[in-house]
Amino acid sequence: MTDLFYERLVKTRHYIHAHPEISEEEFSTTAYLRQKLEDLDIKILETELKTGLIAEIGQGKPIIALRADIDALPIQEKTGLDYASHNGAMHACGHDFHQTSLLGAAEKLKAQEKTLKGTVRLIFQPAEENFQGAYQVIAAGGLEGVSAIIGYHNNPHLKPGQIGLRAKAIMAGVEQFTVRVTGVSGHAARPDLGVDTVLAITTIVTNLQEVVARTVSPFDAAVLSVTHIDVGTTWNVLPDSGFFEGTIRTFEPAVREKVIAGFTAIVEHTAAQFGAQVAISWGNSPSVTYNDSTLTPLIAENSKSFAEVLEVLPSTGGEDFAAYQAQIPGVFAFVGSNGADDAPDWHHDDFIVRDEALPVAVNYYVENAHFLLDYFAEDQA
Question: Is the pTM of this model over 0.85?
Fold first, then answer.
């Protein structure tokens, strides 16, 4: 592939970046991807996916899956780029970069189809930002017959040309909680005649800071953040109910269980002190993005042929790629996308991916697809 290939790919990314769509609404994006794949004569599988799509190159077993996410965020872009979005959404997490690199890999792999020792399945996944897309792909049969899956997320703190990998936990398990607290309403002048929901909620939130600080080993990692409190409507009335919500992030199953148990105990016991009632609900969010211990070092070694490979610390961000890894062996990497000291992080309104990061992202898919097909073909022989 020549430099013209990447010049075309840059134009593709700029187009996708300028036309973002948020989770569950990626209809035009899906149509655009479908047309690109049809132009390459790549087989698109019929599924029940509302948005996103699955395609295949090659034939027979083994089957290796390559995944890219396609959704954007409801953020008003402020990058000032000449291809910036103006529709109220933004690819502020770089999913335009992800899907473009998978399109580039698809073109390369299609040209190499006769040399493939099996099938490469391309998963253009919707709705990663709300953590639902991977479950939708699995329900649509996207992992049927697949021996292993690889994916990546761009990382603005790594330079173009670099890949970050680590075995086991590379991104956090995410818990999304909502706690509704119910007391007894009354006049602010007579709090003794009610059950003070405001005091109950604020005391619970304060006490929750003990969970990580005093129950998690300093050699482990966990985060518990309350991010939203809603209680009361006026100055002289004790409200009868309110709620707060937030997130827990952990990297190991045992730590997750311990933090959730401590969280539940503090919420219930503190509420009981005030005579308030509580109901805890948990969102459908991903577990730890946990890289396969056997495949990860092999992928790292193979990737050294086209990138500088670094062992990185895990991120406290979450990824629904973890849902795939719960079903089959999977490897998730970080691909360097900026590297500047002041590079904005994910989900910022001035987040920028550098175009020169595309070659390594494309080759991450292409070279490791070949490697894994060879690896599992030998295993099945």
Answer: yes
